[in-house]
Amino acid sequence: SLAVLQALEDGLKSADADPSVKAVMICGENGKFSAGADIQGFSSPNRRGVALGSLISLIERSEKPVVAAIEGIALGGGLEVALGCHYRIAHVKARMGLPEVTIGLLPGAEGTQRLPRLIGVPAALDMITTGRHISATEALKLGLVDEVVEENTTEAAVFLANKV
């Protein structure tokens, strides 16, 4: 939602401006990272605020390490947010994908550029064109995530953020 995008932008800008903040961790709520954009908002004539693509670019440009703590699902725009982060940690039960192709849309926040850079063109094309979800274990093998954990994902992300 636009409220979530705005909160992410405000939080990142605040963290970047605060010299006491050494790293940023992005996580979801209730065991889910993000199911992506609210497609109902695509047709809203009053759609104003932060665009997902510009938010992800802001994350990517952060001079402080940004770690995604992926639990549950990271789909569509949610996965694109994670792709903009410098590091990604996933819970072993997490699932990731770009399912928007199944409703006739291509990933619109530069996921079609970031995913191939990260995991290679063949694997990225498969995910982008089929909408297939992958497990955390497969994501680790492909290089989509840096680590898979069985316990507390946010604690592992904070530990990694402090380490880097």
Instruction: Bin the strand percentage.
Output: 15-25%
User: What is the CATH domain class?
Assistant: Alpha Beta
CATH superfamily: 2-enoyl-CoA Hydratase, Chain A, domain 1
CATH topology: 2-enoyl-CoA Hydratase, Chain A, domain 1
Number of domains: 1
Would you summarize the structure shown here?
By secondary structure, the protein is an alpha/beta fold.
Written description of the protein model:
The model has no long low-confidence stretch (mean pLDDT 92). Helices cover 43% and strands 15% of the residues. It has seven helices and seven strands. The protein has 164 residues and is of the alpha/beta class. The relative contact order is 0.17. Helix 2 links the parallel strand 1 and strand 2. The protein is globular. The protein has one domain (2-162): 2-enoyl-CoA Hydratase, Chain A, domain 1, CATH 3.90.226.10. It has a four-stranded parallel β-sheet, sandwiched between helices. Strands 3-5-6 form a three-stranded mixed β-sheet.
